[in-house]
Amino acid sequence: MSGTTTAGARLRAAGGGANRWVVLVVLCISLLLVALDATVLHVAVPAVTEDLRPTGVELLWIVDAYPLICASLLILFGTLGDRFGRRRVLLIGYGIFGLASAVAALATTPEVLIGARALLGVGGAMIMPATLSILRAVFPDRRERAMAIGIWTAVAAVGAATGPVLGGFLVENFWWGSVFLINIPLMALILPVGRWLLPESRGGADGPWDVLGALMAAGGVLGAVLGVKRLGAGDSVLDVKAVGPLLLGGVLLALFVRRQKRREHPLIDMRMFARATFSTSVGCIILAMLALVGLELIAVQYLQLVLGLSPLETGLRLLPLTFAAMAAGATGSHTLHRVGPRRMVAWGFVLTAAAVLLLTLMGQHDRPWLLTTGFVLLGFGLQTTLFGAYESMLSEAPPDQAGGAAAIGETSYQLGAGMGIALLGSVMNAAYAPALTSLSGVPGSAGSAASNSLGEAYQVADRLGGSSGEMLRSTARHSFVTGLHVTLLVSAGLLLLGALAALRLPRVMECAAAAEKRPVPRRPEVSLPASREPAEATGSGRAAH
Question: Rounded to two decimals, what is the model's pTM?
Fold first, then answer.
């Protein structure tokens, strides 16, 4: 069944008939599970803390092991799929993800849970780039592929936003291990279905797989993401715990790039970054995620600590963002075809910046309609941006490099998320802390402790009690809202910077179907960009064989 002839026949059937949409459903379910797992644990952290009694460092690793390992291995497994089969890597990822979910659900010690979360990261890193690269092979026509990517990106948004809601429901009604246990029956179903339905595809690269290069990429990304996360957690830029991994990661990534440029058969063709469309798309993904994740983190704190909502209520308040993202994904193909990548990505950034500026009207009292309107505009704008950037990046990359390109896109996604938490978290802290460190009537040690976070400020205020405690609580709430406004303004500036960067993208969406309707040009050698449609046609044929 996995032979060359059968796999090629399966791919041709999936790419040429209605089955390709069934394949898309399988790929989207895969992505949904991975995206859910990235956020579903957040609301279960208090229950995990009460049950397993982890130390502060262990709790940090319980939360961060999954995204760290996943981000660091994306390039490794993305390029491995290009060489040895994307479907094969995906199916192994299913198995690892299901096994790790069972271990995590039944963990009785922090160490076991950390190991299971790391193993989940391995499975996630095998699944994420494989879904996008198989999608690239199954949908050779760019217009259909744009529609498929719209659905794919919408599912990713749904998974990330639904995680806290689902996690809150499960923790309130069952136990914290249930947030992992739900993965097992779905993986047990999707593994045989995926083996039966999914097509096998490989890149056209020859030569041995660069094991050393893959390990250098993994180590480099791990160091970069870990360093950024440490900065986001409040470490100083002079702290060796943050700067050390960041410098080591930067050196390893620089050596990786140098090695790939010199190799006859590189893991990733670095010439892709010389193409303005590809490099700009990657930059736009980073900027979009930088804004989204940093704002989402702060928004969750605002909803819970300032407005006093429960975790489940907080997740429900964020649902309009999810529905708006789904709408943007569903209409993305039509929008891209009508306005082109440049306007779509640029106006997506502008709409998101407008939403962020609208949210600066939030105060210490609940304004549901304002929040709902802001979240709807935020979700629609950011999803429009991510859709246009992902579609442009994937269409610009040669088909035989689809796995590597998908891994670069997903790594950019993870780096942007980490940078967003670090940068916007630092801005928030700089605006929040000063008012609390020198508050009259409050002991210096109490003010210093309260300046760490709003949650800690509430705990300190409760211990102080009386008028001093009430003053500290009120000041902390006011400072948090002020810091939120400053952070939103900085985020709006970054989003407008992304809109300017998007001006380097093509004006129109070029696709084979549109090219066939044009008159035959007098100079056929320049009728289409060599980096796009001819490469797509060649790559699609190569993948089918």
Answer: 0.73
